[in-house]
Amino acid sequence: MQTGPTIALIVAAGTGVRSGSSLPKQFAPIAGRAMIAHAHAALAGHPGIDRVLVVIGAGQEALLRATVGEVEFVIGGATRRESVAAGLAAIGDAGRVLIHDAARPFLPGAVIERLLAALDNAPGAVPVLPVADTLAMGGAALGDVVPRDRLFRVQTPQAFAAGAIRDAHASWDATAEATDDAQMLRAIGLDVVMVEGDSMLEKITFPADFAATEARMLPTLVSRSATGYDVHRLEAGEELWLGGVLIPHDRGLSGHSDADVALHAITDALLGTIGAGDIGTHFPPSDPQWRGAESGQFLRHAASLVRAEGGIIDFVDLTLICEAPKIGPHRAAMRARVGALLEIAERQVSIKATTSERLGFTGRQEGIAAQAICTVRVPA
Ligand code: MG
Questions:
Q1: Domains of the chain by range and CATH?
Q2: Near ion ligand 1, which residues have CB within 5 Å?
Q3: pTM of full prediction above 0.70
Q4: CA 259–ligand 1 middle distance (angstroms)
Q5: Which of the four pLDDT bands, split at 50, 70 and 90, describes residue 349?
């Protein structure tokens, strides 16, 4: 049994030329978010993993930030082996290391558990699946069938005692390339045990793989909708923030944060889709740190909670209820801002407005009300 933290390395330094996209494939969207974000969430959210470090290519920092957020990373090398070595050098003290390819975005927690359990009795463990297809040699014509009963498809993450995999990398002949880290461990005479892999872990390489993987993934998701409602008082001397946009007006909304009634309603709707309470649960108005706070951070937090559950945000529809200001001139800016905060397209955001025919508190222009509905897909 190894002592020290268990650290996951996600190798994501490739340029992804075979995927047919100018965007490196690990940053391309699949099932609603960047490929690398799925693997990162699976590892970061697993109780057996203490820390996750992403190895990216030089110049991919902004792509990582835009797709996964502010996460720990290191710049890799020219080959996969060099990228793993850069990650191993960066992690410092470690007991166990899991090395995972970003091109395998859907990582079941059960695979992580099997790997960690196997490390109790071995310095290395890999997930494998049997080969189902007939395998044959071939050249100009079909040759002999290769018996497949002792052949396995090797997946990632590959799990190692940290000291053992560091030794394997240090001893490796740098003029040769390794297929994977497990072969490097075997090259220094250490055993790698096999645990059961998972078909969800199939590697995504070609354009057709994206659609096939999404088709395998998406039927397990169910649609949920939830609503949110909020009101803030209009007062002189306040700024008017609506939908993350500063709107010129003779009065503004007052409240503990920036009082953006639109973003608050959307935040509550989003929290509702995963039963995660309401905005006051997460950002209590009694807490002085939220005084004057920019409400975009509340919305980003709600979106991150939905995504941490494996959810996909499909649509947001917002209705603002006020006599003034006119919302129409600011609609496009609000859609863009809400879309950016939620990391979804503008066409997935609808902004509407109505008056209450001068009736009630909105009619008397004492305040502005907002109601929102969010639709997401989450694992069943
Ligand atoms: Mg509010």
A1: 6-205 (3.90.550.10), 220-379 (3.30.1330.50)
A2: 230, 264
A3: no
A4: 6
A5: very high
